[in-house]
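Entry 12.
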Amino acid sequence: ARQSGAVLRQKYGAGLDKATEALRNSPALERARSAFSRLLAAPPISILFLMHFRGFGGGVTSIVQEANGLRELGAAVQVAIRSEDESFYRERFPTIPARRFFVYESTSELIAYAGAFEIVVATLFTGVRILKQVTERYPNVSPCYYIQDYEPNFFPIGDPHYKEALESYSLIPRIRAFAKTRWLCETVSEKH
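Predicted 3D structure (tokens):
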């Protein structure tokens, strides 16, 4: 550091000290430093992912890995799983800490538990119905939908699941929907 400082002073002279002082006393940078300090001092954000199904695809793996990664970044994150699926998920994700999962017996238990989180994320079209119940009971919860695929494509038009999948994108007016691929974002945006 001393050698680098000497080289910089030799190259730029007094202008270096002047520029350093300007940055140190910059009102814009002070506002940014202050905002960042408040962000660091804030309690961690709390997120609950709804995984009320036994999933085998890559989407399930992504959800669990991303939840774990968010936890490692400091967020208070859990993945809600049904008690009947607990052994399945524990076997499938042996390196994920057990406390990362919230195991529930009933939808009413899940809804009550979800009310303690800032953000609750549906991960399948059928979870949006559950999320709607959460937001009706706890209006301060921010609802999100992590869209894994364009799910209406999985069912014939007359199937009740088709209708539910279609409605999942608009069932909660203030929902924040997101997906990993541009195609999926564009498809949902165009059709809904």
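Annotation: The first strand starts at residue 46 and ends at 51. The chain is about 50% helix and 15% strand.
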